[in-house]
Amino acid sequence: MAQVESFDILVFGGGKAGKTLAMDQAKAGKRVAVVEAGLIGGSCINIACIPSKTLIRSAEFAHATRRAAEFGTQADNVRTSLDLVRNRTAGVVAEMVAFNQSGFDASGLELVIGWGRFVSPKTIAVETGNGVRTLTADKVYINLGTTATVPDVPGLAKANPITHVEALQLGDMPTHLLVLGGGYIGMELGQAFRRLGAEVTIIESGERLAPREDEDVSSALLDVLQGEDVKIALGCKGTTVTGRSGQSVSVETADGRHFEGSHLLVAAGRRPRTEGIGLELAGVELDARGFIKVDKHLRTTAQDVWAMGEVAGTPMFTHASLDDYRIVASQLKGGDRTTQGRIIPYCVFIDPEFARVGLNESEALSQGIQYRTARLPMDVVPRARTLSQRKGFMKALVAKDTDQILGFSMLGVNAGEVMSVVQMTMLGQLPFTALRDGIFAHPTITEGLNMLFGNVK
């Protein structure tokens, strides 16, 4: 049996929570090892947030260049090279990877690259390029994240579809990209590839896009995408796939609709990386969906083993994973920070952006919470007019019997930044009147909050 190497802390997976905890504890003098299959810095900077938003930025620039005449500039014969877009994206990722590697090196943690699995409680065997290393620690933190789901659709696996990972690495432009799934990833990449020059059809099994949002949001998202000639097919149940992505691929629905494309992108959700890693040998239990069971302190069912980030069922955002780090770090310092009562915002990077924090109307109604609402079209915000970005709206929910803000949704330019202003008001438990009566600089998008909250009855 291989010699067992002992550490104070062992982090299984180098995502946002895991790598931050590891560097923090290594700097504090602990002996720390991070087991990572190969994505230095985690999936966010390698295959998810950073590369996707870099590609989206290239698509925004191409779109803006084609609109140059609206702003008084003539730009003729605009062309896009997906090969150059891919190279720019790869360059941004490489810089981020190098930055993370330098942080690891400076902290003093030991990065072990290879496939790992539990072989006994708090003990992981790692298949490295130089054989197997067996590591154990007083405390173990699992931060393995999720991977794209390829649903059990007839013919889909055989068609060798691409996921967001391969989509970000394409060098040749698809002539017609079929997107299976109308969620956030499908909308972001669908719009981006349309702007880069591909024909795009989004095929969604539900009756509307972004089904977790209110119907007015779904309707507005539909208008935005269709306004850029992204084809949207809703209610596509009983799909069957034939052909091969990258060559010629077809999707047919039970009601007889037929879609032909050159590439097929699957954007149908994500599943946790919990299979085949020996969790049963570690005493770590899963819930019915396959995520690791954790309590409010992110402790698993195994003694001195925690799980963080998406693999623990945390909302699938890097900033949520970072807060998981804060929770486990708090315990190491004798604190009692928990997952309860967290206000976790998010932003969807279509153009214009969609951002939300707190409850929407659907959630408030399902929870029996009474509320007042206010809505403001972006078209009346002066800054939106000067930018010629007038699509979308802001919407706020305020408690019926108090002046506390329950939630905020926005589809519009700079939505993520404006949403953060509302979030800080909610964190400070300030009344909505603080935003109604606050003095915001003119002309900014944020001053629209004056008008929005002025509409609360």
TrEMBL record:
GO terms for molecular function: flavin adenine dinucleotide binding; NAD(P)H dehydrogenase (quinone) activity. NAD(+) binds at G181, G182, G183, Y184, I185, G186, M187, E188, E204, G269. Pfam families: Pyr_redox_2 (PF07992), Pyr_redox_dim (PF02852). The keyword NAD applies. The active site is at H442. Transmembrane segments: none annotated. It comes from the Bacteria. The keyword Cell division does not apply. Binds 1 FAD per subunit. Keywords: FAD, Flavoprotein, NAD, Nucleotide-binding, Oxidoreductase. Residues 344-449 form the Pyridine nucleotide-disulphide oxidoreductase dimerisation domain. InterPro entries: FAD/NAD-bd_sf (IPR036188), FAD/NAD-binding_dom (IPR023753), FAD/NAD-linked_Rdtase_dimer_sf (IPR016156), Pyr_nuc-diS_OxRdtase (IPR001100), Pyr_nucl-diS_OxRdtase_dimer (IPR004099). FAD binds at K53, G116, M316, F317, T318, H319. Its cofactor is FAD. Residues 7-322 form the FAD/NAD(P)-binding domain. Gene3D superfamilies: 3.30.390.30, FAD/NAD(P)-binding domain (3.50.50.60). Disulfide bonds join C44-C49. Belongs to the class-I pyridine nucleotide-disulfide oxidoreductase family. This is Mercuric reductase. It comes from Rhizobium deserti.
